[in-house]
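User: quick one, fold this
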Amino acid sequence: MKHIASGGFWFDPLEKCWKHAGKDILHYVSTNSHAQHLLNIPNTQPKKTARTITFTYMSKTSNS
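Assistant:
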């Protein structure tokens, strides 16, 4: 299963030719971290980091 889902080829004895997973299967596995985890495929996608936004409160001052 891992071999097929990660782009490997297998021989189909009925059709007597080599086959591999379609582009949709390869795309799904390459972009789905849960599928990669289940198949024990290392996740090569960069980790998304949280961004911190700091707000500065500026009070209004009167010019009287």
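User: anything notable?
Assistant: The radius of gyration is 25 Å.
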